[in-house]
Specification:
Length: 262
């Protein structure tokens, strides 16, 4: 364990072996840090925060501060971060709002500088948040999602696995799995590059592209399109997962490009 003499660490904190704490780090409250994690200069870790193993926390990051929610009244709530995450400069991740609730970050994620993860968010694994990406409270992000620079995601929105949000885009609707989204909650196509990198073969990708053609083409009633796919017998497990995501939506899902600005 290596702790710089200028670091300020609460006696209630629990720090495992092989952890490196840099200059002027502040650790306040019942923070737990797993083996091999590195916390760099001027980072702040607070509240009831649990951090797994071998994470990199870069200068100025703020992890586990109180929720930015007027409903929060100081209750015990949590931030739980997995292992092998890279959290770059000045990233902010807040605890849950209500007593006993949590914000949760999975494993092997890369959160670039100034990204913001609001209270009660849930992030899976292998996610990239580029510089300046903003997630409101209660956002859910599936595995292998790429959220580009300066994207804005409204509270309670879900983003399905393998989706890609292009830079400067925003959404107040759910983003379907496998989708490329830009502008304002607009589906532009299928994230074929991301799917290939994840090991999807051509047959799986063709089935997903055909499903997108049916679901998001101009003027098509989404409910009828779902029924068509379900009855066709052509829906593989990937397409069924897409349909389940859409049917579970409470905010509505992104629209096809030809309908987005009507």
């Amino acid at each position: 364990m290596s702790i710089h003499p200028t670091a300020v660490i609460d006696v209630k904190a629990e720090i495992a072996g092989e952890v490196e704490i840099g200059p002027y780090v502040v650790i306040e409250g019942r923070v737990k840090i797993g083996r091999g994690t590195r916390v760099m200069a001027h980072a702040y870790l607070g509240g009831w925060t649990e951090i797994g193993e071998e994470n990199e926390i870069h200068p100025g990051a703020v992890l586990g501060d109180a929720a930015q929610d007027r409903a929060y009244k100081g209750e015990e709530s949590y931030l739980r971060i997995g292992s092998h995450n890279v959290i770059r400069e000045h990233v902010q991740i807040h605890r849950g709002t209500t007593a006993g609730s949590e914000t949760r970050i999975g494993n092997d994620n890369f959160l670039m500088a100034t990204a913001h993860v609001g209270h009660n968010c849930r992030l899976g694994d292998h996610i990239i948040l580029a510089n300046g990406a903003l997630l409101g409270g209660y956002v859910e992000v599936g595995d292998n999602v790429f959220i580009s620079g300066n994207c804005v995601v409204h509270q309670f929105v879900r983003i399905g696995a393998y989706a890609l949000l292009r830079g400067l885009s925003g959404t107040s609707r759910d983003v379907p799995p496998y989708a490329i989204m830009d502008w304002q909650h607009t589906v532009r196509g299928v994230n074929t590059v991301g799917l290939k990198r994840a090991g999807f073969d051509e047959k799986r990708i063709r089935a997903i592209r055909e499903a997108f053609r049916i679901l998001f083409r101009k003027g098509r009633n989404l409910g009828l399109a779902i029924k068509e796919l379900e009855k066709s017998g052509r829906a593989n497990q990937d397409v069924l997962a897409l349909l389940d995501f859409i049917k579970a939506s409470k905010r509505g899902v992104c629209v096809g490009a030809s309908e987005s600005r009507s």
